[in-house]
Recover the amino acids of this structure.
């Protein structure tokens, strides 16, 4: 079934996944705060990524670099000179738009590959209209740098200009030598990190799809300086990235596609770049980029910093600047995708046998915001509450759990189904009787979400019988 973005936004707010930023002040355009379930979803995606790509691999190390960096970093990386979008103004209503986006929305392909002059010509020849006022009268495109500039220092106006990082990747390149010097990594190896990035987007929007403050999960995977080897690793990273997305966080395969960059679109130093796209409610959009960047970044930083960034092969003694493959995921877009992909509505029969519709967000168990819900059947029963709370404190040391003793059990199951909690554990009268007989023999009911199968399990066996989540 197809659900529009407004449905997802409304549900995300209602169920505590995402709230408009600074809500009580009327919000701040295109800023979103993650609510309790959104924060859990975020953490589980981060954990799934870190575990799969860093913890479980012996060729990867992690990093957590600072957001504020020496401005020379951005000169070396090319961001000061060319990290910009083509900005056009509507002469009638003064709306500011991205020329490349206008072209794309009006049927033009590979707008990034066109020069500013060609983009302007397209707008004129195709009578592209302003989305705000409908006029077709544009200024010529000009460069708009997307980096947020700020000042470091205590005196207003006299500090040094610095930037909020527009990507996490440069933190990896500038630490390449530190990591070589302080760890035992050998080519091929990768460095991964997760963190905030900032871009002063001209046209943010579509919920969390394009925002000015977002998070990325990026890897630089360093390989031999040989194009055949590099291209093989590019293919490998396409495959591993897809496996993670589908198997570890459960994104539907049929909603994903790879798009290869057209040679005209490709950066001059790249030997191949792919976008992974997802079919969002308003069309296909980029979820992840996978780029073979050769030795461009290390070469630039070596030149600008004056530091030798070469790698020495321990077997042959050969010194060279490694090539690198960069798989770069948007974490904020991954959260959005997980919510869209999981959201579903289904009909069910209520206790009176009438048909009703309920929302079920079918999250993969790895990322479901709550893994175990603990539900004492009768709130007024002191023993049930005591057993429930004890169980919550034990299980929550390992998993995200929710304790809920409020309302009819059917309603509580439905609340958990809506966020697709994999296991509900109910404590009932039988548990109380067992407690009074022999406290070690207390059993509870475990309801498994997908099969709705219920089984009685000894509390002492719970940790053995529950799957790892
Ligand atoms: N270091 C490479 C890099 O930053 P990118 O394609 O510009 O490449 C990587 O960004 C990913 O970051 C994108 O695929 C997207 O998921 C995410 N991203 C980029 N800009 C974003 C924005 N304004 N809002 C949310 N996510 C964004």
């Amino acid at each position: 079934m197809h659900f529009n973005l407004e449905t997802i936004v409304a549900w995300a707010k209602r169920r505590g996944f995402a709230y408009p930023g600074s809500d009580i002040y009327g919000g701040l355009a295109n800023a979103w705060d993650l609510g309790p379930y959104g924060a859990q979803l975020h953490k589980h995606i981060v954990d799934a990524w870190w575990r799969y790509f860093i913890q479980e691999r012996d060729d990867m190390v992690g990093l957590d670099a600072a957001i504020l960096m020496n401005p020379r970093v951005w000169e070396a990386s090319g961001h000061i000179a060319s990290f910009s979008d083509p900005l056009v103004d509507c002469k009638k209503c003064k709306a500011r738009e991205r020329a490349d986006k206008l072209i794309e929305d009006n049927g033009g392909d590979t707008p990034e590959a066109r020069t500013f002059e060609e983009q302007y010509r397209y707008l004129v020849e195709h009578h592209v209209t302003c989305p705000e006022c409908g006029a077709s009268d544009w200024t010529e495109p000009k460069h708009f740098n997307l980096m947020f500039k700020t000042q470091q220092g205590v005196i207003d106006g006299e500090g040094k200009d610095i930037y909020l990082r527009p990507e996490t990747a440069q933190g990896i390149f500038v630490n390449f030598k530190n990591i070589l010097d302080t760890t035992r990594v050998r080519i091929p190896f990768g460095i991964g990190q997760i963190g905030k990035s900032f871009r002063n987007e001209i046209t943010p929007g579509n919920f969390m799809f394009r925002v000015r403050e977002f998070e990325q999960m990026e890897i630089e995977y360093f390989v031999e300086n040989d194009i055949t080897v590099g291209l093989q690793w590019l293919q490998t990273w396409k495959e591993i990235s897809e496996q993670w997305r589908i198997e570890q966080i459960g994104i539907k395969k049929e909603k994903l596609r790879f798009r290869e960059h057209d040679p005209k679109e490709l950066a001059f130093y790249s030997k191949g770049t792919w976008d992974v796209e997802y079919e969002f409610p308003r069309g296909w959009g980029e979820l992840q980029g996978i780029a073979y960047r050769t030795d461009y970044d290390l070469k630039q930083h070596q030149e600008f910093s004056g530091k030798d960034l070469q790698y020495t092969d321990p077997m042959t003694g050969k010194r060279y600047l490694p090539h690198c493959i960069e798989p770069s995921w948007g974490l904020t877009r991954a959260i959005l995708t997980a919510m869209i992909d999981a959201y579903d509505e289904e009909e069910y029969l209520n206790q009176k046998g009438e048909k009703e519709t309920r929302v079920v967000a079918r999250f993969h168990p790895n990322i479901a915001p709550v893994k175990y819900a603990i539900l004492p059947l009768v709130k007024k029963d002191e023993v049930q509450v005591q057993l429930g709370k004890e169980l919550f404190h034990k299980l929550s040391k390992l998993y995200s759990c929710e304790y809920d003793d409020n309302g009819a059990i059917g309603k509580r199951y439905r609340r958990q189904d809506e966020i697709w909690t994999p296991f509900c554990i109910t404590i009932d009268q039988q548990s109380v009787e067992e407690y009074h007989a022999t406290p070690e023999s207390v059993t509870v009911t475990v309801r498994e979400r997908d099969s709705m199968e219920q089984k009685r399990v000894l509390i002492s066996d719970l940790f053995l019988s529950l799957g790892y989540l």
Q: What stands out?
A: The chain has three domains: 5-80+146-338, 84-144, 370-466.
